[in-house]
Amino acid sequence: MDSTVKIRQHRRMLRRERPVVVAVCGSPGAGKTTVARATARRLGVPFLTRDEIKVGLALSSASVVKDGGVHLNPEFHIAGGPLSHRAEAVMVDTARLLASSGVSFVVESSVLSRTLMDGLLACDARILAVHVVARASVIDERLRARAAQGGETDRQLLSQFRRGEMKRSIFDAPGEVDAVVEVDTSGEDEPGIEPIVAAVIALIR
User: Fold this and answer.
1) Which fold does the domain 17-204 belong to in CATH?
2) Cβ 131 vs Cβ 180: under 8 Å
């Protein structure tokens, strides 16, 4: 029986029992969002990502300039700045609300913060950490391509990466999770999420 059939059979359990949270972490440029989005789509569950929450917060305080463009709050362009911290707080609150309501979901953030973990553990969620990794040369190229498109935040991240400030160990999953899966996205093909699906099925059996 393939994993797609198994997931269909277990979706009712994902809704009825202790929630399963797939927490995706890893370095900027490693491919977290791609893996997290594909996982949420495959499992048929909600997807939370701090970066999209940050964009929403920035747009809520944005202004329209004379040429019709949108001027975002300057804080938006500061990696790890105040707006990032507010987005983290919103994400944690939302994750806690979903988990306490028994909803399984996928959440994505570079580092699985202490506040996020404490919130999920307080809701008795089963946590599958997915650490997304890639070769240093691949991450460098991805961040360089993003920075070339004009992203100030991406230029900061590229600079930090090249200075050696984003070692893989920084993004390791915390020890309290129920299981850990590592996904390497260095190849040209779409990253395989079958190990993630199999780990979710194992948690809900």
Assistant:
1) Rossmann fold (3.40.50)
2) yes
What 3-state DSSP class applies to 1? Answer: coil
Asked if residue 7 has pLDDT above 90, the reply is no
pLDDT value of position 78 = 54
Handedness of CA 39, 8, 192, 120 (dihedral sign): positive
Q: What is the pTM of this model?
A: 0.83
Per-residue DSSP letter, 44: T
Token pair in block for residue 99: 């988990």
Q: Which two tokens stand for residue 110?
A: 């570079």
**3-class SS at 176?**
coil
Q: What is the pLDDT of residue 178?
A: 95
Q: Is 183 helix (H, G, I), strand (E, B) or coil?
A: strand
| Residue 82, pLDDT score | 75
Work out the pLDDT band at 51, boundaries 50, 70, 90.
confident
Cα–Cα dist 24/171, whole Å? 10
Contacting residues for 57 by C-beta, under 8 A, at least 6 apart: 83, 86, 87, 90
Residue 61 pLDDT greater than 90, yes or no? no
- Residues pairing with 107 in the sheet: 23, 48
Report the alpha-carbon distance of residue 151 to residue 77 in Å, rounded.
8
| Cα separation, 196 vs 183, whole angstroms | 9
Determine the Cα angle at 200 with ends 91 and 94, to 5°: 15
